[in-house]
Amino acid sequence: MPHANAPLTETGRLRLARCVVDDGWTLRRAAERFQVSPQTAKRWADRYRDQGEAGMRDRSSRPHHSPKQTPTRTERRIIKVRVLRRWGPARIAYLLGLNPATVHRVLTRYRIAKLAHLDRGTARPIRRYEHDRPGELIHVDIKKLGNIPDGGGHRMVGRHAGTRNRSAMPGVSRVRRGEPRLGYSYLHNAVDDHSRLAYSEILPDETQETAAAFWTRAHAWFAAAGITVERVLTDNGSCYRSRLWKDTLANAGVTHKRTRPYRPQTNGKVERFNRTMLDEWAYATAYRTETERREAFPTWLHTYNHHRGHTALNGQPPASRVPNLTGQYN
Fold first, then answer.
1. pTM for the whole structure
2. Lowest-confidence range among 163-172, 179-188, 273-282?
3. What is the rounded CA–CA span in Å between residue 99 and residue 93?
4. Contact 149, 165 (CB under 8 A)
5. Which residues, other chains included, contact 162 with Cβ-Cβ below 8 Å and sequence gap of 6+?
6. Measured between alpha carbons, how far is 240 from 257 in angstroms, rounded to an integer?
7. What element of type H or E holds 301?
8. Exposed/middle/buried for 105, CB within 10 Å: 0-12, 13-18, 19+?
9. pLDDT mean over 97-115
10. I want to staple 239 with a disulfide (CB 3.0 to 4.6 A). Which of 13, 42, 52, 211 is the partner?
11. Could you tell me if 322 and 134 are in contact, meaning their C-beta atoms sit under 8 angstroms apart?
């Protein structure tokens, strides 16, 4: 296909060639008429004489021979190292004594999957899925987050001052075994697989009682949004293996499913939500106190659900997949 500034399309080439070959125009006159060089006019006229209208079509710019192309044996070594060691172009290039750009071109030419698209344990491409309707599967997880001491943590005031502020927090150094750490919070998150709509609470621990109470509130929130929850997917945390959690879901008519051990990518949608939450809320601003950060959380969560474009949803927010969701236009 011609580029945007090309003076001639296939039709224009044919008209130029016919003026020269059929009507007897000089090359210079035809070149001036169609605003190209005489050499270009001669090329299209010669092709028209030899091939007719078929000669006006674009040809591949790929060379017939590539004497400097990477040898096949070297390409095989690059692919072998990538498959066996799962290294990126820079490390492969260092091992084989090549230019990283050369290694990258070889991997691209053979359509080798990116490392980010491979399972770390098996090196197989990650199979991505999405359920057909909201509520068919809800991903649930807990993210442990260090509280910000009064005066700011190390991200804001530096390591030394941040450590001093944290040590001054009440009860941090006097925690008995079996009690929750006073210097941490636990974000309980529930994310709908189809819409990515998220419900989240900041709670003091991750016990079975806290997790079960969280799900009761989350289930009611999804129901108020018009979403009927059918299944819940969690990891193998102790609170999710408890009888209380099992009974709470069973009483609500919800099926519980757990991920395979050491396979957090199975619960990837809520894991990705955790990462987004840390980048765009928890560590996005230099908060001076934990209270200040918590006060910003409801606004961020509303923005995530109703206004923030999601790459997996073609730039639309999660609320766009839940009809008539309250607050969608606030």
1. 0.61
2. 163-172
3. 6
4. yes
5. 149, 152, 153, 154, 155, 156
6. 10
7. helix 290-306
8. middle
9. 91
10. 211
11. yes
